[in-house]
Amino acid sequence: MCRWIAYAGRTIPLEHYVTEPSHSLVSQSIAALESTAATNGDGFGLGWYGDHPEPGRYREVQPAWSDDNLRYLCRHLHSHLFFAHVRAATGTPITRPNCHPFACGPWLFMHNGYIGDWSRLRRPVEALIPDELYSSRAGTTDSEAIFLGLLGCGLMGPGPRRDPVEATARALARLTDLAGPHPFRFTAALADGRDLYAFRYAANDKANSLYYRASEGGVVVASEPLDRDHGTWTTVAENSVLVARRDAPVEILSLAQFGLAAPSVDGSVRRLRA
Length: 274
Fold this sequence. Notes:
Blueprint: E1 3-13, H1 15-18, H2 25-31, E2 44-48, E3 56-60, H3 68-76, E4 78-86, E5 102-104, E6 107-115, H4 118-126, H5 131-134, H6 142-151, H7 164-179, E7 184-191, E8 196-203, E9 211-214, E10 218-222, E11 234-235, E12 240-244, E13 251-254
Antiparallel strand pairs: 1-4, 1-10, 2-3, 2-4, 5-6, 6-7, 7-8, 8-12, 9-10, 9-11, 12-13
Helix pairs in contact: 4-6, 6-7
């Protein structure tokens, strides 16, 4: 599966987490330690916020370890909120539109997960995307479809605006119903240029790994620790969301309070409300 990092806090160069640490994201693209796929070489991407409301992005189909541009970009780009992702494809083509992160308006999204029987579920999942957002569907991945469907649950499009955690929980409830008995894993990051949200959820399966480290300067969230000092990293519990709002302490919230039950012993999750 994919590996990713998200950062929010004081403005820093992207290299601080993407390329410099001993187990940086580039290192994880070659030798991930907590993934079903040790190599994540099916493309990579960066997303960052600067002087504009919409995020900047750089995405490529070659492996992160082989792109010289990545090292220079990460050294010279500075941001207060950025994403980085290395991809291990799970059935969809290795193309630039299929590389994370995905963007729509001010929103940025990346995903490490899986929804079983995608060939059957593609049409009903895409039906969750409002007509006015469907033109943003540039690729063929389940991740992008889930992102646009999530935005349609109250973050963009018609109707009242919802809290991002509530909107995501609403989308996850619908997706859990669609997946039925098939595994559905959703370890993802969502941001609007001001606040960062990182989710760890699964139905009928174990959720993919997620960790964070917070300091006075900011918070970094990662699929796995970026160095050997594992004692400074905290696991994000399953069925939870990390909320890092600007100028506020990091919070870990249970998704149960937003309508999703905690996983049962067999790993399944049952919807409490749509």
